[in-house]
Specification:
The protein has nine helices and nine strands. With 256 residues, it is an alpha/beta fold.
Length: 256
């Protein structure tokens, strides 16, 4: 892949949930703009295919489970070792359990715990081990991925997913304060309804798609590339005075 600009020339990044959706769009843009990127996700095959597409000079496939501390720590350490350090940590990996998440009187504890483990524990562990390398580097940028569900509490019958993403929002704000004086900027992108594999069942159902699109002032789902553009801006030096920011990318839904 040929870099399209030098905005991230010389920068070293890791991105979790890298093999699809917003993560895939993010790593593709980072590499195109000059960064070397560690691609982290569970599935080896998808990661290796994406790394081959981007090119070995810019991409490193690192299969890992973000919610397993030994696994995510080893993957991030590997990226830092190969790249000679890290400048950017994008904590994107997460799951949504539609049809299993439910209002609390019907919610199975195992579903709650699975969402917390993947969405909140996974982001905590990614930030924990990524920030260790940013501290060693003398600074850098962290971008967490939230959701309107956690930011607004607007997803009926999804209390576990909403709580997990709300926890990420609170954690991000505290990390932003904790590390600002050490040259690490921590921020968050808050996607709304985005056309990604996670939302594929809705995107394939004309009635469901129309319903959700009608809730959005701009009248459509967002794209993974639109979210990636926001992530890259917060990770770049252009956002040098942004600390603890939650940048909402939702077509105006949060304004209703």
């Amino acid at each position: 892949m040929t870099a399209i600009s030098g905005r991230f020339a010389g920068k070293r990044a890791v991105v979790t949930g890298a093999s699809s959706g917003i993560g895939r769009a993010t790593v593709t843009r980072l590499a195109a703009e000059g960064a070397r990127v560690g691609l982290i996700a569970r599935g080896r095959e998808g990661l290796e295919a994406l790394a081959a597409e981007i090119g070995p000079e810019a991409a490193l496939a690192l299969p890992a489970d973000c919610a397993d501390e030994a696994s995510i720590s080893a993957a991030i350490d590997r990226a830092a070792g190969v790249f000679g350090g890290l400048d950017i940590v994008i904590s994107n990996a997460g799951i949504e359990l539609l049809g299993q998440d439910d209002r609390v009187d019907r919610l199975d504890l195992a579903v709650w715990q699975r969402l917390m483990r993947n969405n909140l524990d996974g982001q905590f562990l990614t930030c924990k081990h990524g920030i260790r390398h940013l501290l060693a580097n003398g600074g850098g940028a962290v971008v967490c991925l939230g959701s309107n569900c956690g930011y607004l509490g607007m997803a009926t019958n999804e209390p576990a997913y909403s709580a997990s993403k709300g926890g990420v929002f609170a954690m991000m704000r505290v990390m932003a304060i904790d590390y600002a004086r050490e040259g690490i900027r921590v921020n968050m992108v808050v996607p709304g309804f985005i056309d990604t594999p996670m939302n594929a069942p809705v995107m394939r159902d004309a009635d469901e798609l129309r319903y959700w699109s009608d809730q959005i002032p701009i009248g459509r789902a967002g794209s993974a590339e639109e979210c990636a553009a926001a992530i890259l801006w917060l990770a770049s030096d252009e956002a040098s005075y942004c600390v603890g920011t939650a940048l909402v990318v939702d077509g105006g839904q949060a304004s209703i």
